[in-house]
Amino acid sequence: MSGKDVLMEALNAENAAYVAEQYLQWAKDPHTVDLTFAQFFKNLGDEASVVFEDALGASWSSLSRGREAKEEDQGVLGPAKDASQALQNQEAVSDSVYALQLVRAYRVNGHLEAQLDPLGLQRSQVHPDLALQTYGFSEHDLDRPVFTGNSTQDLLKSEVVTIRQLYQALRTVYCGAVGAEFMHIQNVEQRRWLMHRLEKAEWLQNRPREDQLAILAQLTEAEAFEVFCQKKYVGTKRFGLEGGESSIVALHAIIDRVVSGGVRSVDLGMAHRGRLNTLANVVGKPYEAIFSEFSGTSTQPDGLLGAGDVKYHLGAQATRTINGHEVTLVLHPNPSHLEAVDPVVVGSVRAIQDADSEPHSRYRHMALLIHGDAAFSGQGVVYETMAMSQLIGYRTGGTIHVVINNQIGFTTVSAHAFSGQYCTDIAKSVQAPILHVNGDNPETVQYCAQLAADFRQKFAADIVLEIVCYRRHGHNEADEPSFTQPVMYQAIHSHPSTRNLYAQHLVQEGALTAGEVQTLWEMFYHRLEEAYQKTQNFQRQPVQASALAWAGQGRQGEDSSSPVTGVAEETLQKIGVALNTRPEGFSVHPKIVRQMKARSEIFRQNGPIDWATAEALAFGSLLLEGARVRLSGEDCQRGTFSQRHAVLIDQKNQNEYMPLNNIAPGQASFEVYNSLLSEFGVLGFEYGYSLYSPGVLVLWEAQFGDFSNGAQVIIDQFLASGESKWQRFSGLVMLLPHGYEGQGPEHSSARVERFLQLCAQNNIQVCMPTTPANYFHLLRRQLCQSVRKPLVVMTPKSLLRNTLVTSSLKEMQTNTAFQAVIQTSLGSKPVRRVVVCSGKVYYDLLVASQERQVDDIVLVRLEQFFPFPLQEMTRILAHYPESEMMWCQEEPQNMGGWFFVEPYLESILLSLGRKEYFPLGGPYSTRFAYAGRKAAASPAAGLLSIHQQEQQALLEKALL
């Protein structure tokens, strides 16, 4: 520890007056102060003066003036101390300095020797920084007094303490049932606040009797629920909480505390371990509902869609009154993908906060995430979620993280599960404090939970509470854990439950009698038995955590037509004026100035409108209609291809201006956020946001569509199947740049085939529009149609500036709508072939046909893959009973849309009486031929020359 560190520690500990007095004296005459201080200040040099002035401010000046006045009155400095006095001073100062070092060492590393493991198998480390000998103290020094100033006021209520007193107090606070990590935090106010709360040592005393009774009741409910289920449903998987019952105490303490502090909704996310217990005893899901799911006796009401999910994945919502305040509790459903729900919960909370018109909405709605130890350290989405915690577009006023540390993940012990000191080390990356607590000490768990709640409410920052416990059964109730952890499970089998240990403690101290403890158990167990008897005729209810927000939403068939989404010309012109206007004196980049001037002329001529302008018109028109628009993604403010420029940057001072937020007074707000470099986390966040925002156009844009596969868990488990499994409704829009331009395997394909494989039961919409007007209508349709479904849009890259890819304003005006199929004839001759395609390849076919003077082919663009526009496509193909039929795509045959559309196209031809087969179909007997790249393992060729050869080959096959 450097001299400056010691000095700063003294100042931070409010021991400034003593050290400053010594420094002032030394500055006047180095020979008049203790030798230790003299050497100490000499080593600091000029830095000492700067430190004192910065740290003490007025206090330093006051001390300086006071010292000068005293010296002026005396005329001379006091007499030099004799050798004996100097030696005593040197020892006293040394003791003070080393004592401060000892205090700091325990604040930094005390957690390493904390008693955290209820089983006693994990021995705490012996760290040299925590040994008295490191600081020159021996057994003979323990009763020697030492001056520590205000640094020990919370610990010992005194500025002068013995070494023994100081050592014992530090061991009790920092090496007992709590291991606190907070000295990594750079925010001095947060660090001092935590230090004060820990060293006040209220939690070292017995909790008030009402708290003790509440804790025992919560432990009783938690344990009895698991015991009851184990007896009634022997061998059934439930991923019980046995061994971690203190987590229920923690959740109650957090929720009760934040509700008293003004929180009015808490959204919880957790994996399967302990979920049923949390649903029942925290959220308040009826026991009858849970037991009916065990027995499979519940009936499904009419109109409740979906295959559902296993009981330990389901969520629930309840409104409860806590401490006189009404609060909404939502436990979000989650698949087996453990931490995948984290960003979904945080995004949902942000949406609720944004919709709340009350002041301090960030504090009124909170996310509470419950993690497993192995998943917290092993799943990257945990970091992605925490990394968003303080970003402008994603902050929610802090998330409380509770880690239920079973000390084992499935069969993997911590030595194989993570590389750091603790499973929670990742939280240090966002400077979140971490409290490790022994799960068999429920009173301490409660206090730490309350501390975590207070920290979140005060600092609007994340905090982690890790409850170190154990798992009484195996990974599930039918698993045999002693195969791989025999020593641990020998200890577990002989270890009393947390409830039993705590009940014994209360009986011993006279808070309760053994009979009262037993009565409490029997009463609750009887309540469970009554609920069990009611399960036979229990009717399942729809699980809709965002049901109120989505009330009135209907369902649509797979071939529903699009509503009219055009707007009045004067509205489009009004938006155009805003797009091309900037504040007086606002210095825009010269290239953008030229674009704005050119765009102004385009609006005067009613077109042609390019892709980015059509998007802005769609956004602007929705804003004028009162609908908010939220867009996020990597570099989406400017746009990956420098096409959007939704936020203008003043070239002189970095100020920002958003034209779409300045169309007209009273309009809704347009929010566009450049995200962190994350797909999994950010897409999960925006999906969560969309769950509570049916009236908001919520969009996520991938930098390239190829990168969306980094968020495949969110796409598969939430976006595509969330409504079917959990009755969660979403209108999220995914914008995925897609198109083969020779940029290689990672910059060509948004993997449209993966989305198409997920399509069923009208769950999502997948579109690949080819005109700005159709894109305009598609975005507006998302809010104008009566039913919201997630929308996946394959957006263009090179087409953004292709002069062929334009639309007129008339195509967006009143009485116009999205076209799911567009037909284009290439000539007046009898039609030899109908080529159906989608996306950018249409323009390649168009240009190639003009170059080759092909005039006997009709191009049919499929703008919407799903729901498949069966009626529109049938109507078009019926006009060509004698023509060849072909599907053309850029993607390899095993990718793209071919395998998805081929059955639909075949069924259309069969319905039209077409029975012949075409040899162009390749290895398949089909009425539709295929033109495109051969099946491949990689989405695209890496060499431009190969790409061009493949592209020319598929065009020739389609046209010749």
Automatic annotation (TrEMBL):
<dbReference type="GO" id="GO:0006096">
    <property type="term" value="P:glycolytic process"/>
</dbReference>
<dbReference type="GO" id="GO:0004591">
    <property type="term" value="F:oxoglutarate dehydrogenase (succinyl-transferring) activity"/>
</dbReference>
<protein>
    <recommendedName>
        <fullName>2-oxoglutarate dehydrogenase E1 component</fullName>
        <ecNumber>1.2.4.2</ecNumber>
    </recommendedName>
</protein>
<dbReference type="GO" id="GO:0005829">
    <property type="term" value="C:cytosol"/>
</dbReference>
<dbReference type="GO" id="GO:0045252">
    <property type="term" value="C:oxoglutarate dehydrogenase complex"/>
</dbReference>
<comment type="function">
    <text>E1 component of the 2-oxoglutarate dehydrogenase (OGDH) complex which catalyzes the decarboxylation of 2-oxoglutarate, the first step in the conversion of 2-oxoglutarate to succinyl-CoA and CO(2).</text>
</comment>
<dbReference type="InterPro" id="IPR031717">
    <property type="entry name" value="ODO-1/KGD_C"/>
</dbReference>
<dbReference type="InterPro" id="IPR032106">
    <property type="entry name" value="2-oxogl_dehyd_N"/>
</dbReference>
<dbReference type="GO" id="GO:0006099">
    <property type="term" value="P:tricarboxylic acid cycle"/>
</dbReference>
<comment type="subunit">
    <text>Homodimer. Part of the 2-oxoglutarate dehydrogenase (OGDH) complex composed of E1 (2-oxoglutarate dehydrogenase), E2 (dihydrolipoamide succinyltransferase) and E3 (dihydrolipoamide dehydrogenase); the complex contains multiple copies of the three enzymatic components (E1, E2 and E3).</text>
</comment>
<dbReference type="Pfam" id="PF00676">
    <property type="entry name" value="E1_dh"/>
</dbReference>
<dbReference type="InterPro" id="IPR001017">
    <property type="entry name" value="DH_E1"/>
</dbReference>
<feature type="domain" description="Transketolase-like pyrimidine-binding">
    <location>
        <begin position="609"/>
        <end position="802"/>
    </location>
</feature>
<keyword id="KW-0560">Oxidoreductase</keyword>
<dbReference type="GO" id="GO:0030976">
    <property type="term" value="F:thiamine pyrophosphate binding"/>
</dbReference>
<dbReference type="InterPro" id="IPR029061">
    <property type="entry name" value="THDP-binding"/>
</dbReference>
<keyword id="KW-0324">Glycolysis</keyword>
<dbReference type="Pfam" id="PF16870">
    <property type="entry name" value="OxoGdeHyase_C"/>
</dbReference>
<comment type="similarity">
    <text>Belongs to the alpha-ketoglutarate dehydrogenase family.</text>
</comment>
<dbReference type="InterPro" id="IPR042179">
    <property type="entry name" value="KGD_C_sf"/>
</dbReference>
<dbReference type="Pfam" id="PF02779">
    <property type="entry name" value="Transket_pyr"/>
</dbReference>
<dbReference type="InterPro" id="IPR011603">
    <property type="entry name" value="2oxoglutarate_DH_E1"/>
</dbReference>
<dbReference type="InterPro" id="IPR005475">
    <property type="entry name" value="Transketolase-like_Pyr-bd"/>
</dbReference>
<keyword id="KW-0786">Thiamine pyrophosphate</keyword>
<dbReference type="Pfam" id="PF16078">
    <property type="entry name" value="2-oxogl_dehyd_N"/>
</dbReference>
